Amino acid sequence: MTTRLFYKLFGTYLVIAVLAVVLAGFFIERELKTGLTRWIEEDLMAETQIIALMPEREIEKQSQTLAERSRARVTLIDARGLVTLDSNRQTKDLDNHLNRSEIQESRVKGKGTATRYSQTLKMDMLYVALPLYEGSHLKGYLRLSRPMLEVDRSVDKLRFSIFQVLLLIIILSMIVAFIFSMKVISPIQEIEAFTDKIRRGDVSGMLMIDSRDEIGQLSKNINDMVAELQERIRVANEEKWKLRAAFASMAEGVMVLDSQNRIEGLNKGMAEMIGREYADIVGKTPMEAFRNIALQDALNRFRQAGEIVLEEITLGDENPMILDVNISSVKSLPGQDPKTMIVFHNVTRLKKLEQVRADFVANVTHEIKTPLTAIIGFVETLQQGAIDDRVKAQKFLLTIHENAQRLNRLVDDLLTLSSIELGETKLHLEGLALDDVFETALTLISPRAALKNIRIQREVQPGLPRVCADRDRLVQILVNVLDNAVKFTPEGGSVSITASPEVQESIVIKITDTGIGISKSELPRLGERFYRIDKTRSREMGGTGLGLSIVKHLMKAHEGSMEIESTLGKGTTVSLRFPVLKKIS
Amino acid sequence: MEEKRHTSREYERELQEIKNGLLYLGAMTERAIDRGVKALLERDSDLARQVICDDDQIDKIDVEIEEKCIRLLALRQPAARDLRFITTAIKINGHLERIGDMASNIAEKAIILNEVPQIKPYIDLPRMADIARSMIKESLDALVHENVELAKKVREEDDTIDQLNEQIFRELLTFMLEDPRKIHASLYIMQISKSLERISDHAAGIADMVVYMVTGKSVRHKSSCESKE
To answer: What is the rounded end-to-end Cα distance, in angstroms, of chain A?
Structure first.
């Protein structure tokens, strides 16, 4: 209400009203004055004419009465201009009046008027003069004069009432101006408040101004604009959320660096990849956050070349991750500093698989090559004549046979392994009594144990439920594990095999030896194909390096599990967990 | 320096560059120690030679960082915190460079040791190397996070290294007394152990500098008399 625009508008109206009234007053007063003057003039003239009809002597005689009746000063002037009679003054005091303008005018035109400051009476006077004739002879002039004061007085009297009326007009126009100003101002105020609300970010609602003028049009435009704005914001938000969702759900880690090379943001994938301890990396430089030379080198290279950089880095000390890093610049809005985007792709598993495959090929060829070399070597020796030496030939042939058998075992194991891996091995699952199975396995392994003077203890808890397994495969598993136990236990040691029930409907077979044990760092790698802890010794013992790998895969096929615990120098325990045969089947 | 932004972005960038340079150098020394010891354990002389080559790179970065610090001192006239940071950076830089040299020394000895049969399994040496590495890492972590507590913890780890060094010394002494043929190798192993011990001293020095940088108080030079009691 007390806005400046209101004052401007209201003030302008007020000034216009006052100006108009003052101007009107001025003109009215002037008009009034001239009207009144003319009216008095005519009045005076009429009286003069009436008096002029009277004989001169009568005028002289009754000059006082005439002056009173006509409320005027009556003056008689002869042809030479000498004042012969004056109702108000002594004639002798007065000078020649012939050159007065009203006298001159009356002499020429027959009547004359003039308004002038009278030196005699010291005030504004209105003079009317008529020439007096006797026949055609000019005898003198009759002049009547009345003070102008009378006009002023009546104008003054009128002026007050005019002023009152004008004041009333001003007050009325003020009220009108106030109402009108308010009417103009209030929608503008409304628009102002609404736009301010929008500026503060609240784009809801719309203007309700019912008007057909420009202000109405303006509010309509603003409403349209806000609607447009709402739509645009909605679209932008949608885009933003879409992008954010994509960004968040990406498996790859994404990190954005600002122009100062500080980490500006990272997605969920990235946070998960690098773990919780790095959650506070925002605002730091990559060097501060990761302390990784390879990453920094890649960033430096990117900064120098300005091209996309692809690099493979290893991150982390304890569990190193191999990451494919892709560094590129983010196209930013004009005027903004360029940003850098780093995409991390975790390829640790792929790399590991690659490594396993490469190792496998290298191992297989190596394993095959060794007996083959021996066979070829001995065959060549035989060819070169050793065949004639019966004793030696016999020995060589034995070696060739041994190596050929080893080759055969290797190929058998490989075939078994691959058929289990491919899931081609059909398991004939049945309920097996462990006592019986242990018997079979131990029969196979006892001769080897006896050679090293190793005692084998067997303990099966009475009343154990039957396990659900394929008989031949189970024997194979036990033989493989027992074989290892016997192999790595020094002479005079002992191996025990026990079976006991476990809670979740499973039976655990434990095979414990008093062997050399396995160091902690090696444990996770057991079961990898061709993985040998002590490469030379194991091969001497005739292993193929596939034993545990086969066990591991067979256990998986039986939906069981294998755990190995070991203390270096003390011995190893292999726990095999089998499911119990369900009663129904 | 994260909290308060400098008016001049350029100035801030330069400070950050020095910090990053130190971290880079730190990571390089860590890698050098790691590889130097690995070269010894796996008897990989090629890796050892690689470590010695990499030391040139460490030296180069050392010179670069020092130049940057001096340039900044001359051109920007840093005050208070920034001044402390830069003087600290110069010192840390020196420590790291020395650590690099030590790692290079270890690699040189490893090459020599790889020529002769291994006299004993290395168990304590890799432990020492691990601790020394983590000390460097932690002292630089303390620099990044301006964490005084972590810096003080680094100083404590130094004692473990000293004990391990003692232990190796005694062990090697018995080896040498038993079999004079092992003296040659033992002396080199002892030098490696000594190098690792020196590395840990430098790492503790870095941690002390971090404490100084953050608090403005010097914690170096404990009284020698007291520690002997």
So the answer is: 92
- pLDDT band of residue B108 (cuts 50, 70, 90) is very high
Dihedral pair phi/psi, residue A111, rounded to 5°: -160, 150
Question: Tell me: the pLDDT tens digits for A386-435?
Answer: 788 888 888 888 888 988 988 888 888 888 888 887 877 777 888 888 88
Chain A residues within an 8 Å CB radius of B13: 260
Contact A293 B144 (CB under 8 A): no
Residue in A261, A280, A291 to test binding to B, most B beta-carbons within 10 Å: A291
SS3 content of chain B, % helix, strand, coil (to 5): 85, 0, 15
Subunit contact A260:B9, Cβ cutoff 8 A: yes
Range of the structural domain that residue B29 is part of? 9-219
Q: In B, which residues are within 8 Å of A283 by CB distance?
A: 2
Between chains, do A291 and B26 touch, taking CB under 8 Å as contact? Answer: yes
CA A190, A195, A200, A205 dihedral sign is positive
- The answer as to whether B2 is a domain residue is no
Separation of alpha carbons A438 and A434, rounded Å: 6
φ, ψ of residue A58 in degrees (nearest 5): -65, -40
Whether B202 is in a domain gets the answer yes
Nearest to A287 among B13, B23, B30 (CB): B23
Q: For position A220, what pLDDT does the model report?
A: 87
Mean pLDDT of chain B: 85
Mutate to test the interface with B, among A264, A288, A317 (most CBs of B within 10 A): A288
User: Higher-confidence residue: A382 or B217?
Assistant: A382
Task: Look at residue B29 and tell me if it is in a domain.
Answer: yes
3-state helix, strand, coil in chain A (%, to 5): 55, 20, 25
* Range with top average pLDDT, A97-111, A226-240, A346-360: A226-240
A83 class by beta-carbon count within 10 Å (0-12 exposed, 13-18 middle, 19+ buried): buried
Query: Which CATH number goes with the domain that contains B28?
Result: 1.20.58.220
pLDDT given for residue A370 in this prediction? 83
- pLDDT tens for residues A439-465? 888 888 888 888 888 888 888 888 788
Sequence-ordered list of residues with C-beta below 8 angstroms from that of B227, at least 6 positions apart, any chain: none
A55-to-A52, A78, A133, A451 alpha-carbon distances in Å = 7, 14, 11, 191
Count how many pairs of residues, chain A against chain B, have C-beta atoms within 8 Å.
34
Contacts of B123 in chain A (CB under 8 A): none
Q: How many domains does chain B divide into?
A: 1
How much is the pLDDT for A328?
A: 87
Question: Is residue B1 a part of any domain in this protein?
Answer: no
Residue (of A554, A537, A311) closest to A417 by Cα position: A554
Using the beta-carbon criterion (under 8 Å), do A288 and B19 form an inter-chain contact?
A: yes
For the cut 70, the answer to whether the pLDDT of residue A1 exceeds it is no
Task: Give the pair of three-digit tokens for residue B69.
Answer: 């610090």
A133, pLDDT greater than 70: yes
Residue B49: is its pLDDT beyond 80?
yes
